[in-house]
Amino acid sequence: xxxxxxxxxxxxxxxxxxxxxxxxxxxxxxxxxxxxxxxxxxxxxxxxxxxxxxxxxxxxxxxxxxxxxxxxxxxxxxxxxxxxxxxxxxxxxxxxxxxxxxxxxxxxxxxxxxxxxxxxxxxxxxxxxxxxxxxxxxxx
Length: 140
Known about the structure:
By secondary structure, the protein is an alpha+beta fold. It is 37% helix and 13% strand. The radius of gyration is 19 Å and the shape is globular.
């Protein structure tokens, strides 16, 4: 029997590759008194499942910086509502194509060939996060 078997889960959080589960010690479980115990483990597949909009936006900002190798930009510099193309972040069509491939690899979500829909999806980090969550909900 593991320590996790003796503790009831209090909350769970999801990230891109890891899940953290926070346990509150139960009296008599053989643990020293104190705060909660946090266990982290690799998440199989589905990085977007159970992820909130804001958490997904933060993950997308990191993905944008890393996938597009934006050396002078950090994820914290990107405003979720800022346009990705043009005057906002300044991405071009090649950058968006690379980002689309990175999003597909990480989240298993694809956009179609409809150019006007893609402009809406890739308008900002917020719209991209909403699209990913919507697609994941449809996939169920």
